[in-house]
Design brief:
There is one protein chain. The two termini are 29 Å apart. The chain is elongated and about 105 Å long. Helix content is 16%, strand content 48%. With 319 residues, it is an alpha+beta fold.
């Protein structure tokens, strides 16, 4: 019984191989033609990477001693200058004295306020308030961040190590925020970090991209997509990339339509973004370029081939 099963399986396998071989031999290449006109346009070669909006320099302002916040003079989003007073606070001793004086009356309170002045909290840099961490009357310690300043917001981009060699300081960039996809910002590469990081088993280098203008809606922590422009050209001859073929001699060529006849033209390529390719030499604007595509179809005989292991179609009798 086992030998019979092995024989049957072997026969079935051989029949299956013959069917597959017959199908492969029955394939016929079918050629489709697309004719396009050589036109001028713009082409851009860019590196796409994701990033996050962050302060380039984030400065947390902490009180010089423990005490109580008396006044806060700024709000989140305010721009401040170096030396500007941001808040006033009382030391723990002053807070205790003022509380005792307040219990004795308003006049006594004002006298002690004149005698014992509050401590000003001063901005050490020019920047923007991105965090207001306390409110008047709140008790703080020397470890508490009262206010956080940012000198300027940047986009910190993560670039794959395979692309970092194409990035250079001063290159232009286009920034698109996930929160505001219709508002594209212009920027430039400001700094490329020297030390790599490994994220999800991928080696990346961080790159600082500085926006040309910081809009009011930009916030720290926003996600962004950044196109770092490696090269770009305007008003150049372009053809679809799949129209360019490589000949046996190693030279690139395109097939053009000349007086209703096909003709090969050797071309010199420039920039290519994958979809379109710049033609530096070999073509003129307005020429007709033929794009040839081959697909495979099955012959009628193959279509009539029936798998012996499948039941016949309705209306058909297997012979």
């Amino acid at each position: 019984m086992k030998k019979n099963k092995i024989v049957l399986i072997s026969i079935a396998f051989c029949i299956l191989i013959l069917i597959v071989f017959s199908i492969c031999r029955s394939k016929k290449p079918k050629e489709s033609i697309t004719i396009i006109e050589v036109k001028k346009g713009d082409i851009k070669l860019s590196i796409n990477a994701s990033g996050t909006v962050l302060p380039q320099n984030r400065l947390s302002i902490k009180p010089p001693l423990s005490g109580r916040i008396e006044k806060i003079l700024v709000r989140e989003g305010d721009y401040v200058k170096k030396g500007q007073i941001l808040a006033y606070m009382s030391s723990s001793d002053r807070a205790a004295i003022l509380d005792a004086a307040r219990a004795q009356g308003e006049k006594n309170l004002k006298e002690w306020e004149e005698i014992y002045k509050p401590i000003p909290i001063i901005a050490p840099i020019d920047g923007q308030v991105i965090v207001r961490g306390v409110e008047p009357g709140q008790t703080v310690t020397q470890s508490d961040a009262i206010i956080v300043l940012s000198d300027r917001l940047i986009i910190k981009v993560q670039v794959d190590e395979t692309d970092i060699g194409k990035v250079a300081k001063g290159q232009k960039a286009i920034i698109t925020l996930d929160a505001y996809p219709d508002n594209k910002m212009q920027g430039l590469v400001d700094h490329i970090y020297y030390e790599s990081k490994t994220i999800n088993n991928v080696t990346i280098y961080e790159v600082d991209v500085l926006p040309d203008k910081v809009p009011d809606f930009l916030r720290s922590g926003m996600s962004a997509n950044v196109d770092i422009i490696q090269a770009q050209k305007q008003d150049v001859l372009l053809v679809p990339t799949n129209a360019v073929k490589k000949g046996p001699n190693g030279k690139n060529f395109v097939v053009v339509l000349n007086n209703n006849k096909r003709d090969r033209k050797i071309v010199e390529m420039g920039l290519s973004d994958g979809e379109n390719t710049e033609i530096v030499n070999g073509l003129n604007e307005g020429e007709k370029v033929i794009i040839l595509k081959q697909s495979f179809s099955f012959s009628k005989k193959m279509e009539e081939t029936t798998n012996p292991f499948m039941p016949p179609r309705p209306g058909r009798i297997r012979k």
